[in-house]
Amino acid sequence: MNATKIATNALNSIKRNGTTFVLTRKTVTVSGSEPWKKSSSSASTQTLNGILNDFKTSERDGSVVLQQDRRYIVASSGMTGGEPNVGDLLTDGSKDLRIESVQTTRAKNVDVIYTLHTRGYSA
Q1: CA atoms of 7 and 108, how far apart (whole Å)
Q2: Largest alpha-carbon pair distance within the chain?
């Protein structure tokens, strides 16, 4: 089986068993010319297919993984703009979560799924 087929199969499985989330990426469009001048940024959103695969109690150490942290597995197939980045926002229903880390699972050179460690966020 080729790598693209594996990614497509992962997406189809996640669609059957998961739900959708919204990923918001912020991009700096103009850097501030001085440290005290604000940079301009824009945000783009896209819908992701994923599954909440929460941390086990034994994984919540209170330092790296906090009590309210969540873990999601999302399909890479169909995503635009490459893998999610630390600092991007994932919206699960009415909850905005900041991505703390991203783990990529690949087949050969093709991204199949991203495992996202998220933490509650308020603007």
Answers
A1: 11
A2: 53
Q: Is the pTM of this model over 0.85?
A: no
3 state SS for 78-98: CCCCCCCCCCCEEEECCEEEE
DSSP string, 23-38: EEEEEEEE--SSTTSP
For the chain, helix (H) and strand (E) counts, in that order, are 1, 6
Q: What is the pLDDT of residue 38?
A: 66
**What are the angstrom distances between the C-alpha of 77 and each of 13, 68, 122?**
12, 28, 29
Those residues with Cβ within 8 angstroms of residue 96's Cβ, 6 or more apart along the chain or in another chain: 89, 90, 120, 121, 122, 123
